[in-house]
Amino acid sequence: MTTKFQIHNFSFFFKDQQILKNLEFQIPSNEIFGIIGPAGSGKTTFLRALNRMNDLETEISHKGNILMDQNDIYTDDFDVVSHRKKVGMVFAMPVPLPMSIYENVVYGPRLSGIKDRRALDGLVENSLKAAFLWDEVKDRLKTSGMRLSGGQQQRLCLARVLAMQPEVILLDEPCSGLDPISTAKIEDALTELKKQYTIVLVTNNTKQAARVADKTAFFLMGELVELGLTKQIFTSPVKKQTNDYITGRFG
Predict the structure, then answer these.
(1) Which of 170, 197, 203, 207 has its CA 20 to 30 A from that of 176?
(2) 166 to each of 7, 15, 88, 170, how far by Cα in Å?
(3) 71-102 exposure pattern, b = at least 16 Cβ within 10 A, e = fewer
(4) Helix (H, G, I), strand (E, B) or coil at 128
(5) pTM over 0.90, yes/no
(6) How many CB atoms lie within 10 A of CB 118?
(7) Residues 158-201: pLDDT tens digits?
(8) Phi, psi of 141 (to 5 degrees)
(9) Angle at 200 between CA 175 and CA 121, to 5 degrees
């Protein structure tokens, strides 16, 4: 099993507040790495640290290192734009662009310089199939993405990320506003996608982590409390805080 990310003594600060505290662990390639924990535990901040999205904020700082494929992504001369093409992100609320389903998917590839219609058509079909959406929309690709259901919009956003052919997919509570059927389709897609991609899934739904994650990390107040195989985390956690959280005693 190869390692995609190595996190070494990583801390993150916003103004004078420390959000992440001395994180030290690894994220394997081609697995679903789940991150659970109560609100305010630093889950989303960590996720955004993996593709440098926190850089968009002001008055931030960090200590330590995050390596992707042995390359430190926090060096001064690191190519952040290129990195973000490799590390795509799906947010909690679907944000389709106000254009057709087809144009939503090809938006990123076009900006990257792909103009050939046949290549774009192939990207649309393959990305929508990978997001488990093709069969539902293949006959209405010219329809506005805004007219899709919430679950379909979220899968469209996933397809839009996949069209950029990333190496890593970050998901920040992607099913928080979805019904069980839509959630199941997202989870089915992720289970297939891990064959080709490294997936990091932040979720407040512990049952979702138990269903799809290969490994699960439990964050609390900016610290990594426990990390292990998902089955172990949910059946025989080592730390009392982990057990208290997954059994609903807090959070």
Answers:
(1) 197
(2) 20, 32, 6, 10
(3) eebbeeeeeeeebbbbbbbbbbebebeeebbb
(4) helix
(5) yes
(6) 7
(7) 999 999 999 999 999 999 989 999 999 999 999 999 999 999 99
(8) -65, -20
(9) 75
